[in-house]
Amino acid sequence: MDLNRATIIGRLTRDPEVRTTPTGKSVASVSVATGRTWTDSNGQKQKESEFHNVVMWGKLADVVGQYLRKGAKLYVEGRIKTRDWTGQDGVKRYRTEIIADNMIMLDGPSRSGTPSNVTENIPPIYSSNTHDEPSAVIEEEIKVEDIPF
Questions:
Q1: What Å distances lie between residue 65 and 16, 28, 57, 110, CA to CA?
Q2: Averaged over 85-114, what is the pLDDT?
Q3: Residue ranges per domain, the chain?
Q4: SS3 29
Q5: What is the per-residue pLDDT across 12-48, written as a single tens digit (0 to 9) for each?
Q6: What is the largest CA-CA distance in the chain?
Q7: What is the pLDDT of residue 126?
Q8: Average pLDDT for residues 101-119, to the nearest whole number?
Q9: If we measure between CA atoms, which residue out of 46, 49, 47 comes closest to residue 34?
Q10: Distance CA 44, CA 140 (A)
């Protein structure tokens, strides 16, 4: 049995970039910073930050683009995927991303920059699996060429 699962809690380092594929599907790209603090062997407090590239599709992308801004705190669940491509300069490039399945907005509306009356009736938990299609439908494979960024 194999498991590819990523779970992070952090803050957006920039506003979400939301685009639409040629087939009309929404895709959002965000960067999430996570931090860690520890005391080293000399008794000095140390801090470290890690930055994660997160990609959200469909309704998750729409929600993130509409309600979240730089600095917003969120919980993300997904799978890790590394994609590669050859740049215009002929150099092969790699990018490791978390493809989000679920997301929870952890800040109140005032911290995310959204007026409080907009999000009062919206539940804070979103999942890419909460669509109107039957669960037996298998999503189509997404090709690197279809990603607009």
A1: 6, 7, 11, 16
A2: 83
A3: 6-146
A4: strand
A5: 999 999 999 999 999 999 999 999 999 999 999 999 9
A6: 57
A7: 55
A8: 62
A9: 49
A10: 50
- Identify the pLDDT of residue 107: 83
DSSP reduced 3-state for 85: strand
Give pTM, 2 decimals.
Answer: 0.71
On whether the CB atoms of residues 96 and 53 are closer than 8 A, the answer is yes
Spatial separation of the C-alpha atoms in residues 72 and 107, rounded to whole Å: 6
CA gyration radius for the chain?
A: 17
Share of the chain above pLDDT 90, in %: 70
Q: What is the mean pLDDT of residues 111-140?
A: 44
The answer to whether the beta carbons of residues 54 and 113 sit under 8 Å apart is no
Structure tokens at 79: 């799978």
Place of tokens 């803050």: 11
Cα-Cα-Cα-Cα torsion 108, 18, 146, 99, nearest 10 degrees, comes to -20
CB atoms within 10 A of CB 107: 19
**Homologous superfamily of 6-146:** Nucleic acid-binding proteins (2.40.50.140)
> 124: which 2 tokens?
């804070």
